[in-house]
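task queued by scheduler; priority normal; single chain, no ligands, no partner chains; default sampling; output format set to structure tokens
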Amino acid sequence: MPTRSNVSIDSLQRDRFFHMTRRDSLPQVLRGLESIARHESVRPIKVNAVAMRGFTEEEAIPFAEFARSTAFQVRFIEFMPLDADHAWEPDAVLTGDELRAIIHGVHPLEELPREPHSTARVFRFQDGSGEIGFVNPVSEPFCADCNRVRLTAEGKLRTCLFSLHETDMREPLRSGASDDELETVVRDAVWRKELKHHIGEAGFRQPPRTMSAIGG
């Protein structure tokens, strides 16, 4: 059984959730969270919200109060150029610093020590009621100590969210490759892991896969 869980919710308001996802599923998602929370061995339970300028400012305090009143750790993730509509632009990014200032003005925060290779800066509420995190890949890149790789549903190994190239794991698996041979394929891919994502630099190219096609 998994020991941790991530769930994406960009708004706690039903109409705005529908606007973002094109599905009227917020009640269903919240019921799922409640079901997960009943399993005390599954911790932490993270609720991820993409932070977008002109939208998430209104969500900041409701999400903070959600984190304060539940067992869930809300994490705001800066809007990245992984959208299917290719509508991303730098001005659309609502930074973690800006969101934290909004929340700190109502519910004072203090930062917790960063775990090695963590993608998030995590803060506790000063009165002890819960935690909230900020994942800032655009305004505060953490590429220097990133150790993440991802495997897509089709068996493609990606060494960065913004990889333009993938390593096929499905074919070796289906061809009967040994564990040692598979380890070599993975090691070779990791040795080629990108130094950084290049967002905001001249010549940056958005990968052909969107976030929904990459997975966690």
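post-processing summary
- Residues 144-214 form one domain.
- The first helix runs from residue 14 to 21.
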